[in-house]
Write a structure and sequence with these properties.
The chain has 412 residues and is of the alpha/beta class. The chain is built from 15 helices and 17 strands.
Amino acid sequence: MFRADLHIHSRYSRATSKNLTVRCLAAFAAVKGIHLLGTGDCTHPLWLQELEDELCRDEATGFYRLKNPLTPQDIAHYANIDAQSVPFQPLFVLQGEISCIYRKNGGVCKNHQLVYMPDFETAKKFNAKLSRVGSLTADGRPMLGLDARTLLAWILEEKNCHLIPAHIWTPWFSVFGSKSGFDSLEECFGDLTGELFALETGLSSDPAMNRCWSALDRYTLISNSDAHSGDNLGREVNIFHSALSYAALFDALRRKNSLFYGTVEFYPEEGKYFADGHRTCNVCLNPEETARHGGICPVCGKALTVGVHYRTAQLADRKTPLPAKEQTEYCIPLKELLAECCGVGAKSKKVHRIYENLIKLLGPELEILQNVPIPSIAEQDAKLAEAVMHMRTNKVRKIPGFDGEYGTIRIF
């Protein structure tokens, strides 16, 4: 079994931590328990050069690894965890995200696409093609006037490259977004739709919401952190039972078989686009309330930002989700659980001190959240053990996010 976070960013993307280096990402991956990490931003020339300087090909897997292995000192320096040892050496897959902004069918379409490359040579060749469309240096996630179908066609021209639509329900920048999306994949990708095999659900939706629409039945549903900092790595991840290799990973996704076990999910209500509303007006509505108001904010009279819950229900053709092969487990980041247990902020020194001790005694964060027996957690912290038990059994209270504002999940 291995965990894979296949959508992240580097410090060259907007609104990201300036501390994100390759070794920083590896250090946080080890602390979190993520065996395979997307590199993020492989279209940015400076980041791609940094990746090439720091990584070498791992011939056994077809992925990349650090030329100089991760050390406990790296984990202490980047993640501020006094580790006694390194649990494993994380691997990397060349990954980027492209923002496609273009006119189609009389309107402006905006969607984000994830791309994966097998090696540096292919990435450089592909980037040369993209650079003819727009600047790759302005942002780690380049904004290009490129039709998504054209991007997919270019990906298919390269051997062993793959495209997966990103966070498919986000209102502003996704294939089904309420503000600039389509009502079907065929509208977006046309005659190449059949080449798609997986979709990223995004933080504000989960597989159950997607399995209420039969048009998505044939696709594997993946979940990733879309992390802009080391702390946010692994807030959503994929679990594979396949061989740890580039070929096996995408074969499992394409075949939609049991080698892709499933996903570890944010509670979708915690995503910042789950519900409908206006952040500036402090208005948060459920789909029924939005319909009753005709999609108009009752405070300012302007159009609401229609969230993922409304949009998935709008396109759904089932009342209950189709049973799926993939498994879904819900997790709350460990520091958020500790913050509630302690009654302080998740970024407080007290929370970090307890977090560090738990990592040293019980192992990586996702192991604690998913697998460590409750009695073993109780030996260290009885209240945390109760919180983890509630989380694992989905006994939580949900305050939904809306219009760019994250939601809150409460245990007690």
